[in-house]
Amino acid sequence: QVQLVESGGGLVQAGGSLRLSCAASGRTFSDYCVAWFRQAPGKEREFVAATSRSGQTTYYADSMKGRFTISRDNTRNTVYLQMNSLKPEDTAVYYCAATNPPIWLGDLAKSASGYDYWGQGTQVTVSS
User: Fold this and answer.
1) Angle at the Cα of 53 (from 3 to 123), degrees rounded to 5?
2) Which of 50, 70, 72, 92 could form a disulfide with 38 if both were Cys (CB 3.0 to 4.6 A apart)?
3) Integer Rg of the chain from CA
4) Alpha carbons 81 and 66: distance in angstroms, whole number
């Protein structure tokens, strides 16, 4: 089992940047694929970005491509989400999630149901 703790959220003006961190403890972190999801009030949880165990393979939601970057440092047991050019519609609670599946790619990597462990979330608010 792995425990996940997100940090780095806050209030930022439109056009600004934030870097979220997801710190893991428990099992060997490099065994896990990790993703970020977000959920805005009254909306369903949506996929943001995901990274493979090594970090060599990444996926992004179309609306985040070019603005968000996911990365990981397995020596620090941490995954990051660098968010640039933030928009008010990026306002949401951001969650990191982890999974250790036999197969991880494409739509499977982007589905919340494919992740077994979740953090408590961190609030990101973008003001206009």
Assistant:
1) 45
2) 92
3) 13
4) 12
Count of residues in the chain: 128
Confidence of residue 56 (pLDDT cuts 50, 70, 90): very high
CB 119 within 8 A of CB 95: yes
Residue 5's identity, in one-letter code, is V
Give the integer Cα–Cα distance in Å for 104 and 31. Answer: 12
Confidence class of residue 104 from pLDDT cuts 50, 70 and 90? confident
Q: What is the mean pLDDT of the chain?
A: 95
